[in-house]
Each structure stands twice: as C-alpha cells, then as structure tokens.
Amino acid sequence: MNRLDHVLIRVDKLEKAVQEFQQMGFKVFYGNAKENCHHALIYFQDESFIELVDQSKFPALLLYLSKKKVLKNLGIFFSRIGHYASSESRFLDYSIYDSDIDYMHKKCKTNNKVSKLFKLKREDSKGQKLNWKLFAFKDMDLPFIMSDYSPLKYPGNDADVHPNGILGIEAMEIASTNVSAYCQKLNRIFDIESADAVFNFEHTKIRVVKGNSSKIRSLTLKGELQSDFDLESLQSYGIFMS
User: Fold this and answer.
1) Pairing relationship of beta strands 129-135 and 118-123 according to DSSP bridges
2) CA 148, CA 97: separation in Å to the nearest integer?
3) Per-domain residue ranges for the chain?
4) Could you say which of 3.40.50.10810, 3.40.50.720, 3.10.180.10, 3.40.50.10610 is the CATH number of the domain covering 3-146?
5) Confidence bin at 156 (pLDDT 50/70/90)
6) What Rg, from alpha-carbon coordinates, does the chain have?
7) pTM across the whole model
8) 234 — phi, psi (to 5°)?
9) pLDDT tens digit string along 38-79?
10) In DSSP terms, which residues pair with 223 in a beta bridge?
11) Beta-carbon neighbour count of residue 210 at 10 Å?
C-alpha cells in the first residue's frame, strides 16, 4: 500500500524554525552538514516526515533561474524545483512512497506526462550517503513519487522518537478547484477508492476539499502529547493536533 512519504513546508528562516520545533519537543535534523544548508527534517514513527525548506538558502544561480522562469523550460523535474524556489505558499509539495517505483513509473507513463526516473543522492547531517529514486508529474497538483532511502533515511536509531510524543501525520487536507477531477486523478494513479473525497493511504488520510486554488491546506499530527509541551506555534505552519 502506498503511504505519505513527506511534506515540504516553506519557512522564512531555517535556524529559527528549527529552534521553534525543538522547543515544541520535536527532534529536528539538518539535511546536511553544510553551513548554508537549506532544509531540515522531522521524522515520524509512521515513516512519514516533514521537510522544512528555506528558499533563501538555495544556490544563487537556482534562485536567479527560477526568477527568470528558465527552469520551466528544462523539463518537469526542474520546473517543480523552480516552484519550490519561488512559491509564497506555506506548503510547497508532498510525496507518496511506492515500494516498486520502477513499476509505478512505467505505469504512470501510460496515462500521464511524467519526468524520467531520477536516481538521486546526498549526504545527511552525519555524513552518511543516501540514495533514492523519484519522479514527478507535469501536473503540479499531483504529488511526486519516492522510493525509500538506501541504506537508511534516519540519521540515528531514535531519530523518529520525539519528547513531545508525536508519532506521525494522521491527515492532510488538500484544496482543489475541482474536487471530483482531483479525486479521479489520485484514484487512477494509486487505485484507491475514495469515500466523501477521503483517501486512506497507509497511516494517513488525505482529504480533498473545495477551494479557490489547488494547494495543501493543513496537516494533522497524531500521538499522545506530553503535557509539558506547548504546540500552539504549530498552527502558524498550518499544522494541528488530532
């Protein structure tokens, strides 16, 4: 069964956001050990994670090309990267994990315009080399598809155990200008029937609602919250508790 892999959230200043989430009882890991790292990660026991993204820390050339809209001419994958660099939305994107991404890519090419299957790599904050695969749809409303990380995405054995007791992402709400059409797209890709525009992915419900624009509206977290942590600041990031 497919599951929510991760959600990308734009932040104005990464160091400040990391500190704020840490104060709320989350373990937060920078994406790499570089001084100008542009992202940080919050892992959960349901295998999902949140990626905090600071656009201002993207390479200057990438920001320039995005501003000039050049990246749109370089293909589906780079067009999506350009969106990350220039979007003013709080939620930038989301991805769905697939255990057989080679088969999924072949299947999606039949009825959708998709990027090639990229093999990517990076080093995490501890210098561990990670490898994974992904591909993206031309339709920016749809998620991109991820493989798992190899050898292991977590930077430590207890990276997904948070002092505040949060276990994972229970639900995500997505607004669409055409709820029926969006549900049909998800159903065609993932073979999941929806009831009242709610899709039951493994561990996480994705709810589609009517909106003036197509975007992620909110995340709902789950867990037995420890009483000595105040999570009120989560709401400024579009995140709520169940």
Assistant:
1) antiparallel
2) 7
3) 3-146, 166-241
4) 3.10.180.10
5) confident
6) 17
7) 0.96
8) -60, -35
9) 999 999 999 999 999 999 999 999 999 999 999 989 999 999
10) 166
11) 11
